[in-house]
Design a protein that fits this description.
By secondary structure, this protein is an alpha/beta fold. The protein has two domains: 215 residues, 3-Layer(aba) Sandwich (Aldehyde Dehydrogenase, Chain A, domain 1), CATH 3.40.605; 144 residues, Aldehyde Dehydrogenase, Chain A, domain 2 (3-Layer(aba) Sandwich), CATH 3.40.309. 41% of the residues lie in helices and 20% in strands. The strands form four sheets. A seven-stranded parallel β-sheet has the order 10-9-11-8-7-12-13, with helices on both faces. Strands 16-2-1-17 form a four-stranded antiparallel β-sheet, with no helix packed on it. Helix 12 links the parallel strand 9 and strand 10. The radius of gyration is 24 Å and the shape is globular. The protein starts with 7 loop residues before the first helix and ends with a strand.
Length: 433
């Protein structure tokens, strides 16, 4: 662990103190820190690359799966993208201090609802080092202190990135404790007990891991577990659109939560779709596991079992099922999916509307790839994760999902007794923002 703290509990208390100072900083200081951090990361590219090479070598020696190793890589392009993301975030509107409501309760008594940081956010994330940069930047821009715990596979890269960000941030005027890095998995359990210091936990990992977090902490948890995403090709689909959308959804980047894991195909279009779909998927090295009907239409489709439709592969494997109707597709997605992101390909606007209303997911798309489910692609300034819950934030969680609000009431000696005893009365007049 960094920052001279001896335990996760001490780290949380340290971050809580830093969060109060951070929340009071003006936008110019937070944006200046983002700029300084971007410059520092670019200037230390060789140090970052050397640390990442150590992690990659250890991962390959340990025999980790190819997609995981790919996520672990933090090459020059990913660093450049991270630096660009930091610079673009500077130009985004400040989410802190926005007046959401202004209401005159009576003459001279004005209520305001104003956005403010959540406080201390603990984020436990997977082996992608670029996630550390994104999360730190989003928390900083939104005025929140961050406690970060990355995957052990990326320990060397995470440590170097943290040190660069921490030093540059402090040089830019940020308080001690604006960012903290935990480096032992054992510290996670202790962190979960710090409900007096930590305001929100965002876990990014397996369904089992996220459930463990939820079951073992009094701290509010926001996030998602599995990313079991679907593309449904309707009977009114344009095959020329459907095949590229399915392929992009699966292979543009297989080891992410918004990659498609199951393809559903309407029976009326299956005969014409399966051959070009299989050709495209096979050409990208994708193994297709399907139902009996789909196996009968193509010899390369392997048998799927019930568990395949509940599996997040994060690999070059996809499930395939032929359905009788859009309603069956919707029922399948709601039963087997993870409420992350699901898409329909169709030229029938009625079917599209039925699907988009019926699928209970954070993102529901029409005629486009599931890979668009991303904070950067939404214009949110990257994301700390994707929330499949329905409270506070849903879908990719960017800056707006990292603030809450408080009520500010401006008066001049006003007393409730005057209203209760009839000497004054509320007139509730909304004022311009």
């Amino acid at each position: 662990m960094t920052e001279m703290v001896k335990s996760a509990g001490e780290a949380a208390a340290y971050a809580k103190a830093g969060s109060r100072a951070l929340a009071a900083l003006p936008e110019e200081v937070r944006n200046g820190a983002l700029a300084k951090i971007a410059d520092a990361l670019a200037a230390h590219s060789e140090v970052i690359a050397a640390a990442n090479e150590k992690d990659l070598a250890a991962a390959q020696e340990a025999g980790l799966p190819g997609p995981i190793v790919k996520r672990l890589a933090f090459d020059g392009k990913k660093l450049a993208d991270s630096v660009l993301g930091l610079r673009e975030m500077i130009g985004l509107a400040d989410p802190v201090g926005r007046v959401l409501l202004r209401r005159e309760l009576d003459e001279g008594l004005v209520l305001e609802q104003v956005s403010c940081p959540i406080g201390v956010i603990g984020v436990i994330f997977e082996s992608r080092p670029d996630a550390l940069v994104q999360i730190a930047a989003l928390c900083l821009k939104s005025g929140n202190a961050a406690i970060l715990k990355g995957g052990s596979e990326a320990a060397n890269t995470n440590r170097v990135l943290f040190d660069i960000i921490n030093e540059a941030g402090k040089e830019a005027g940020l308080p001690d404790g604006f960012i903290t890095l935990l480096e032992s998995r054992l510290e996670i359990k202790e962190l979960l007990s710090c409900h007096e210091s930590v305001d929100l936990i965002i876990p990014r990992g397996s369904n089992e891991f996220v459930r463990y977090i939820m079951d073992n902490s009094e701290i509010p948890v926001m996030g998602h577990a599995d990313g079991i995403c679907h593309v449904y090709v309707d009977k009114a689909a344009d095959i020329a659109k459907a095949v590229p959308i399915a392929i992009d959804s699966k292979v543009q980047y297989v080891a992410v939560c918004n990659a498609v894991e199951t393809l559903l195909v309407h029976k009326d279009i299956a005969a014409g779709l399966i051959a070009p779909l299989m050709e495209g998927l096979s050409g990208k090295g994708v193994e297709v596991r399907g139902c009996g009907k789909s196996m009968a239409l193509h010899p390369d489709v392997k048998a799927a079992d019930e568990e395949d439709y509940r599996t997040e592969y994060l690999d070059y494997i996809v499930s395939l099922k032929i359905v009788d109707s859009a309603a069956e597709a919707i029922d399948h997605i709601n039963a087997y999916g993870s409420h992350h992101t699901d898409a329909i390909v169709t030229e029938d606007e009625v079917a599209a509307a039925q699907f988009m209303a019926g699928v209970d997911s954070a993102g529901v798309y029409h005629n486009c790839s599931t890979r668009f489910a991303d904070g950067f692609r939404y214009g949110l300034g990257a994301e700390v994760g994707v929330s499949t819950g329905k409270l506070h934030a849903r879908g990719p969680v960017g800056l707006e999902g990292l603030v809450t609000y408080k009520y500010l009431l401006h008066g001049n000696g006003d007393l409730v007794g005057d209203f209760a005893e009839g000497r004054r009365s509320f007139h509730f007049k909304d004022l311009p923002l």
